[in-house]
## 1
Amino acid sequence: MVRKCSQAATTHVGRADGPCYWLVYDGQCPLCRQSVDWVRRLDTRRCIVAIDLITQWPQIARRAPSLTQADLAEAVHLIAPDGRVWAGFEAARKLATLLPLLWPTVPWLHVPGASVCGAKLYRFISRHRHRVAYSDCAEGACGSENH
């Protein structure tokens, strides 16, 4: 049985109690924030804690010292309680295994070629997210200089 994280884990990220995964994202990007909102809705087991790479950098640096802010700005990262890290498409694929409502997609995310195609699609979206029709992106919050 998976123990749920307490609500305090979202505000005191260094003290997450239980098997919480950290979903590290760019809180300045509206597309990223919207994606995190979807993950929160799908996280019926409350096993994912969303961590903004800008405002919560000190906690991230303590938990995953090998990652840099530049690494994290390139793609969403998922950090397991034991320290394993997935990035980009691999993070999305791992999320599908953690979120019961996405379990039906898991076989499709592992068909031959899914890693290559999924990674390319993820990189394309990440690099061009400043073109997504969000007002904040039009003001440069998702500028290509960062992605």
## 2
Amino acid sequence: MIDCIPGILADSGGSAPWLDCSTFKMTTRAINSRRMRVNDVELNVIVLGEGPEVLLVHGFPDDHTVWRNQIPALVDAGYRVIALDTRGCGDSEVKPREGDYAIDKLVSDLIGVIDALGIAKVRLVGHDWGRCRPGVSPWSIRSAWTAT
């Protein structure tokens, strides 16, 4: 199941000024990065924090680092944050064929990560093409996820 976090990205800068992030500093050591193989692709996945899960999906050609300001704010607010590099981006595996990047593959990758982490409910946040790619929406992921 997918729902939203009202107001977490309230201002145009994407930060949450109403949260005190002084207790958490985003550093290379703070990132808990892992490699996960799902759907025949190896993805770089960041998992931080405890609490309700939030899945952050970046746009093209970005990677998980576009969330560098939101990750500590969400962790400090009591969320478990999952931010991945989608296939072909960041530190995730680059696949050779154009067809390897079809929307259904991206949706399947997101579902594969969610399932591999044993998550039953996730809050989905997308940026740029991670938000508005045709076929990538909370509805398409919910539909594909519940069908599996």
## 3
Amino acid sequence: MSSKKTVIDFEKASAELTQQEKVKIEFEQLLKNTKKIDPKQKMLWAEIYKNAIDDRTNASILFVSAYQKLDGSAACHISLGPTLVRYLEKTNQANRQLLDLSAQINAVMNANEKIDPDDIFSKIAEEDNDD
């Protein structure tokens, strides 16, 4: 029975990994398509993203491993409970980092997209002068 559970968990983990790879590729494309953003900032964002995903993945793997060792006894819950909580907290912290990163990228992209009326008029004036 436990071998069947392991196979199911492996298939689920593989599907999640594939989804994470798709999201990672989409994130990299987003960074590549952003203009007017310092390449160093893009590199920093990519590193933050990678670290948060790695932290979340590692915490999830460790959580599942520890959770599977629970046998229902009080002693087991006492010994593994604090460890499980730490893994959940680490996963939550990684999720918060991703949300903060998303908000930061969104704010920078919105700031870059704002249209300055004076800038528009100066560009129009430049084009008129070129003619």
## 4
Amino acid sequence: MNQEIKRKWLEDLRSGEYKQGIGCLCIEASEQDTEDEWCCLGVLTDQYAKAHSISWERAPGAASRVMWILAEYALLPTAVMEWAELDSSNPMILGVGELNPFQYGQDKIIIPNYLVDANDSLKLTFSQIADLIEWAF
């Protein structure tokens, strides 16, 4: 992975600027929920969008608040994957299935297979996901 992009991604995940969500890269804010919700991959994609002056749009045919960019709403668009020098649109974390070296309180967590699993299935916080990214990439 490109180390400068990684550094900025980790910074963004830990910043508190992005509200975490699940299921897609970005879910647009509603009247009741005034902040957009982001998957960890959406945060990286937003970094790309800002660097390349590209705007998010509502995804056609998807739920009304689902946003997309570069024809993708669930995984990294190819352009983002290539820019970040990642080998997959859903990056695999090293050490799959092993106990990782991170401990949160009394609990150790199992390393998920993919970053989307860390965000959507295990519901790790952005800070925990940033720790995994820092360790794995």
